[in-house]
Amino acid sequence: MPRTITVLDELPRGSTGKIVRRELQALLDPDGTSASEQD
User: Fold this and answer.
1) Per-position b or e across 1-30, b if 16+ CB within 10 A of its CB
2) CA atoms of 37 and 39, how far apart (whole Å)
3) CA–CA gap between residue 1 and residue 20 (Å, rounded)
4) Rounded Cα distance, 11 and 6, in Å
5) Do the beta carbons of residue 25 and residue 39 sit within 8 Å?
6) pTM of the predicted model, to two decimals?
7) Angle at 38 between CA 34 and CA 39, to 5 degrees
8) pLDDT digits (tens, 9 = 90+) for 2-38
């Protein structure tokens, strides 16, 4: 998935990485069908 690399590259560096991970989930899963809610 080359797109994943691009997204990670464009995402800002969060202090904890939590926000970055959430935004990444939202970008890769706009429909929210993943288990992102079970964080």
Assistant:
1) eeeeeeeeeeeeeeeeeeebeeebbeeeee
2) 5
3) 18
4) 9
5) no
6) 0.30
7) 105
8) 565 555 555 566 556 666 777 777 877 777 666 555 5
Structure token digits, residue 16: 């904890």
Q: What angle in degrees, to the nearest 10, is found between the helix axes of 18-28 and 2-10? A: 140
Token pair 């288990």 is found at 35
- Give me the amino acid identity at 22: R
Q: Which of 22, 29, 23 is nearest to 1 (CA)?
A: 29
